């Protein structure tokens, strides 16, 4: 029984000892060897930090280039819209000119016809008047 008691006692001691002693990162083990082991820890930390900074710089450059691209794209869209509007206005003006010129031609031809009719009527009246005077 005494052996079982000692086994139980040791198991209870180890469980409490394991809970008390946990591994803590970035702590040197002794003052005598602190400089030799800390260099590797420092080097790894420095490497991770430089990688993190490089990644941040890379993301910033990427975001900046994306912003520049979107600004250029918006500017090009605006310029293209202006060109399209200008061309549409030119087409509209040309169409109006064409329709107006057609209307003018029709009006001119009507005016010419009317003036011809009026001249003919005047001639006829003159002829009638001259015939009436002769009679």
Automatic annotation (TrEMBL):
A Pfam family assignment: DUF1168
Basic and acidic residues: bias regions: 47-83, 99-135
Biased composition, class Basic residues, residue ranges: 84-98
Region (Disordered) location: 28-135
Start-end of Low complexity biased regions: 28-37
GO terms for cellular component: nucleolus
Gene Ontology molecular function: any one: protein kinase binding
Cleavable signal peptide: none
Name this polypeptide is given: Uncharacterized protein
Organism field: Dictyostelium discoideum
């Amino acid at each position: 029984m005494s052996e079982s008691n000692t086994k139980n006692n040791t198991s209870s001691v180890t469980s409490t000892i394991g809970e008390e002693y946990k591994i803590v990162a970035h702590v040197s083990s002794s003052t005598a060897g602190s400089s030799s082991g800390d260099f590797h820890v420092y080097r790894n930390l420095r490497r991770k930090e430089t990688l993190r900074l490089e990644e941040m710089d890379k993301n910033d450059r990427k975001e900046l280039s994306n912003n520049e691209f979107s600004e250029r794209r918006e500017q090009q869209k605006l310029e293209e819209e202006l060109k399209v509007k200008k061309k549409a206005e030119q087409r509209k003006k040309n169409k109006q000119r064409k329709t107006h010129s057609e209307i003018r031609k029709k009006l001119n031809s009507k005016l010419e016809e009317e003036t011809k009719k009026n001249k003919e009527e005047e001639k006829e009246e003159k002829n009638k008047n001259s015939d009436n005077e002769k009679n």
